[in-house]
Amino acid sequence: MHVKDIMSADFKFARPQTTLREAAVLMRDGDYGYLPIGDSEKLKGAVTDRDIVIRAVAAGLSADTPVSEIMSESIIYCFEDDDIREAADMMKREQIRRLAVLNDAKRLVGIITLGDIARADEQRLAGEIELQVAQPA
Fold it and tell me: In angstroms, what CA-CA distances link 56 with 14, 29, 45, 80, 120?
């Protein structure tokens, strides 16, 4: 099974100048835990709900701070034609629960999550990822 068969193509982009408040509202309203940062399909970074809590709220940043201040610029990704086992191995290796999904032109086309893998009836793979992610880095 390929990543494109189970990924979510339902995602929103935030621009680098989007405020933390605006990003949090986008994430809440869309029920997203991962927000790509860029314009159109050009990925410049990403912010997770955890990034907002740890890098912004706990650090005392203003809600008007641009997301570019806390975004991760090194994006871990897979390709839409990759086998889901390859994506699962990458999640385990990097100790993450989500991956950006790119097409051959390296444009963002979706997000694959641990939940997507579990819903694809790959419970064993999902369990392996969860065990690895839970390990201290």
Answer: 16, 20, 16, 32, 34
pLDDT of residue 100: 96
Q: Give the residue from 127, 109, 133 showing the smallest Cα distance to 3.
A: 109
Q: Does the pLDDT at position 40 exceed 70?
A: no
Is 0.85 surpassed by the pTM of this model? no
CA atoms within 13 A on the CB side of 78: 26
User: Which domain range does residue 42 map to?
Assistant: 3-133
Give me the CATH number covering residue 92.
3.10.580.10
Count of domains forming the chain: 1
φ/ψ (deg, to 5) at 27: -65, -40
Q: Output the pLDDT for position 39.
A: 78
Contacts (Cβ under 8 Å, ≥6 apart) of 136: none
